[in-house]
């Protein structure tokens, strides 16, 4: 069996924790040091493994398959195997133990232990899986895989799905496989939550399934990214792309698609053991969920984008003061998630569609159901803010400004109680300021004064 060396695209692709992203056109594969593949076998030795299945009992068939498999990998220096067992310690025991650890030339120990296993306890799969993290050596440049062999989990301790998620999130394990031997009725629960579940209903498929896992553990999948526009042409843009483990949500790989790399047809390499949620960070982001890759043929991930542009600017009025650069919050129409925050006079590309736009001026401006169309620019103009110079007597302790819109008062901001003069930039409109004097306690004694702000002009508000 051949173990393929891990190739790293130096300038483009890193696992998380590596360097910074670079553009895809600078890719040059280079060989890294050989990767050690470590496979932990977790074997079910509960009482039910004595049950008859096909030609013999489940435990006898399993022992035969494992012994034959160990013989085939005996001379593979880049594959290490260890064995953890549960349900075998003594009658009615629910314990688990690492019987053969990862160590050099341990095939004889593995064979000897497998031959002498006697099922006699209960199902302790969740505990065995939880303890498995401590079974792997703390070394770099290794791919750690768990293979659980069991004939059923409905009577097991704990929640195997919750434990498997914790194990996967640890970052120690690349992938967990579950080989379910026997009838499907023994696996009423969906165990894909715990890893890649493989149902083995026929004895002759047992050995092949185990070999398939080990073959897959040695390979890398070749993947190419394509980003096209609506006409099928390569899309001219620079966009980050992140590959997330679809089971755990952990980011595994990251790259940048660059428009100047469209002629570059080289493939990058990726772990085929993992299923991915692939997110292209357009605005808003596009995601392909639960994507798996074949190691024995080229793979292509294609995104199709239809994008337009949004530009928001002030009207042409000149001012003697600096106009603020208000943040502009862009959301998909009817949604609460923020797609992007852009600036005044900044031209930004978005996927074609409808958006709600909030300009964080005082008061806020909300534009709903704004259409952005493919290969066109949506230009929006907002009024230039004016200035309200507010002068207050020293006796004023608190004040607030409200805008008046169709008779309704809407809160805008509070005044600074420590200042007797304030300069407030406000969008054009009608306003009212409500103030309270330090010596006044009655609600009726609050001072109210209306004023108007015009675009690009200064308004003096003198409060007596």
Terminus-to-terminus distance: 92 Å
Characterize the main sheet: 6 strands, mixed
| Share of residues in strands | 35-45%
| SS class | mainly beta
Q: Write down how many β-strands occur, each being a DSSP E stretch of 2 or more residues.
A: 32
Q: What's the architecture of the largest domain, going by CATH?
A: 3-Layer(aba) Sandwich
Uncertain regions spanning at least 5 consecutive residues: 1-32
Radius of gyration: 33 Å
CATH fold-level label of the largest domain: Rossmann fold
Measured as a percent range, the helix fraction is 10-25%
Q: Strand arrangement, largest sheet?
A: 8-7-4-9-10-11
Q: Identify the CATH class of the largest domain.
A: Alpha Beta
CATH homologous superfamily identity of the largest domain:
von Willebrand factor, type A domain
Write down the domain tally: 4
In DSSP terms (H or I, runs of 4 or more residues), the helix count works out at: 5
Mean pLDDT across residues: 83
What is the general shape?
Answer: elongated
